[in-house]
Write a structure and sequence with these properties.
single chain; mainly beta; 53% strand; globular
Length: 123
């Protein structure tokens, strides 16, 4: 069992940056694949980025490649999402998620979820 708590969302203008944090508690942090998803109003939850358990290779959705960076600090049991050059289409509730074993791109494959943090990007 792992508990996830996101923070760092807010209202920004297009081109600005934000860093989201996801603090994990419970079982050993390095046991889990950690991922970020987002859900805009009226849309399905979509994959944004993920780190495998080893943290060697990050995975990104094409829509955020080159703008977002996922990282993890195992000593702090925290995963981050640095979001640069934000666009209005990035507006969504961002969720942190965890699962065992390998990275997956569908939200249904993740077992544990945070409560979400709102990111709003104005044009």
């Amino acid at each position: 069992q792992v508990q996830l708590v996101e923070s760092g969302g807010g209202l920004v203008q297009a081109g600005d940056s934000l860093r989201l944090s996801c603090a994990a508690s419970g079982r050993t942090f390095t046991t889990y694949v950690m991922a970020w998803f987002r859900q805009a109003p009226g849309k399905e939850r979509e994959f944004v980025a993920a780190f495998g358990r080893t943290g060697d290779n990050p995975y990104y959705a094409d829509s955020v490649k080159g703008r977002f960076t996922i990282s993890r600090d195992n000593a702090k049991n925290t995963v981050y999402l640095q979001m640069n050059n934000l666009r209005p289409e990035d507006t969504a509730v961002y969720f942190c998620a965890a699962r065992y074993w390998s990275v997956r791109y569908l939200s249904n494959d993740y077992n544990y979820w945070g409560q979400g943090t709102q990111v709003t990007v104005s044009s």
